[in-house]
Amino acid sequence: MKIGIFDSGIGGVSVLHEALHRLPNEEYIFYADVDHVPYGKKEPEEIQGFADAIMQFMIQKGVDAVVIACNTATSVAVPFLREKYKNLPIIGMEPAVKPAVKMRGKDRVLVMATPVTIRENKLHDLLQKVDTEHSCDLLPMPELVTFAEKENFSDPAILDYLKKQSASLPHPISEYSVVVLGCTHFNYFKPQYRQMFSEDTSFIDGNAGTIRHLADVLGLKLTDEVKAVRKETSQACVAVNEEKVSYYFSGRPVEDEKELQIFKHLHERLEEVRSF
Predict the structure, then answer these.
(1) How far apart are CA 110 and CA 138, in angstroms?
(2) Can 183 be counted among the known catalytic residues?
(3) Where are the beta strands (DSSP E) in the chain?
(4) 124: Cα within 13 Å, side-chain hemisphere
(5) Which residues of 101-140 are buried (b: 16+ CB within 10 A; e: fewer)?
(6) Spatial contact of 171 and 144, defined as CB atoms under 8 Å apart
(7) Do residues 274 and 13 make contact, with C-beta atoms less than 8 angstroms apart?
(8) How far apart are alpha carbons 124 and 117 in whole angstroms?
């Protein structure tokens, strides 16, 4: 099957990376809307328009399903898109609050997301349903998207930014046993999170759940999850990626070797942080 995956930028590669691990036999189209990144600082009407244009692109490419690999776009546009494109399965994303609340024990949950995701009703409706003890705190992290889009994963300024944003939290860092990564761009920075939080703190995102839902909708069988991170696993993933994925920057095909190297490096980074 041919599966379309799109995001405002390169954050959605983390969802694609999960798909390549769990559904390696499918064909993928990955669309990074780099002309309009970041979505998290734009108005809902703009985001809806961008998402609609991307859906039309995906339909022209003959996809069997579309994954919105962006919490922000999902929160703003998914009802509209599902109503307009009723015959095409559209898989959205939402912050993994439900599993986080279940695994938190007596501690608190920190949900990091973009300002739009935090502002929209979709997240607050979710919290109202699953966070009955009001254990979740929300923290906007818009600049992490900027760091990711620049492929800047090791700058000391990243940790400084995390500490600055966290200073506004109503509880000490030590009280958070689970951190929800509510934006696909946030996955690249797990080593920095580990420096801030306790070694017992868990970091979860919606990627695995999204790909499981995709498999259920399409009737596909998932491969066993690979727990260990090995060099040969990374190389194999990159090789599969080259054969199975067509990349686009806001509708423009990515064919230049220099641009393709960007995606190879992103997959390598995601493989490195997979076990965090």
Answers:
(1) 6
(2) yes
(3) 2-7, 27-32, 65-68, 90-91, 108-113, 136-140, 176-181, 202-205, 245-249, 252-253
(4) 7
(5) beebeebbbbbbbbbbbbbbebbeebbeeebeeebbbbbb
(6) no
(7) no
(8) 9
Q: What is the pTM of this model?
A: 0.91
Structure-token match 């491969």, residue found = 223
Mean pLDDT lowest for which of 71-85, 173-187, 235-249? 235-249
Of 23, 66, 70, 127, which residue is the catalytic one? 70
Q: How many residues does the chain have?
A: 276
> What CA–CA distances, in Å, run from 221 to 20, 209, 217?
13, 14, 11
Q: pLDDT by residue (tens digit) across 136-180?
A: 999 999 999 999 999 999 999 999 999 999 999 999 999 999 999
Which helix (H) or strand (E) is 162 found in, with range?
Answer: helix 156-166
In the structure, what pLDDT confidence band is assigned to residue 15 with cuts at 50, 70 and 90? very high
d(CA 242, CA 124): 39
Looking at 183, 214, 270, 273, which residue is catalytic?
A: 183
Q: Which residues pair with 5 in a beta bridge?
A: 30, 67
**Looking at this protein, which amino acid is placed at residue 235?**
Q
Q: Which of 85, 101, 83, 63 has its CA nearest to residue 214?
A: 63
Checking if the pLDDT of 233 tops 70, the result is: no
CB-hemisphere CA count at 13 Å for 134? Answer: 2
Distance CA 211, CA 92 (A): 10
CA distance 144 to 238: 24
Q: Which of 58, 36, 35 is nearest to 45 (CA)?
A: 36
At residue 219, the pLDDT reads 97
Q: What angle do CA 171, 177, 182 make, to 5 degrees?
A: 85
> How far apart, in whole angstroms, are the C-alpha atoms of residue 96 and residue 248?
27
